[in-house]
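Troubleshooting: if your tokenizer reports a length mismatch, compare your output against this known-good record of 83 residues.
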Amino acid sequence: MSTASKLTLGVTSLSAVVTVLFVHYSQRWEKAAMHEGVLRDMEMQRQKQERVQQERLQDFEMQRALEQEYRKVQSVSDGTGPK
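Known-good structure output:
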């Protein structure tokens, strides 16, 4: 084999190995990045659910306070009529 062909074989082999390693590590990095995105989304959903529950609790407390205030001002029946 001539020196030029040996050099060409070496360069192409090295390029192939470098390409395979680059793709391998690139895929690992992308997989880790996607996993981080999933974790971030789950955390955002958990925080949103907590906010929604807190808002519902506040609405419930406000309705309870309004009901108590209205009961002081006016008489309230249960709607079943006289017995």
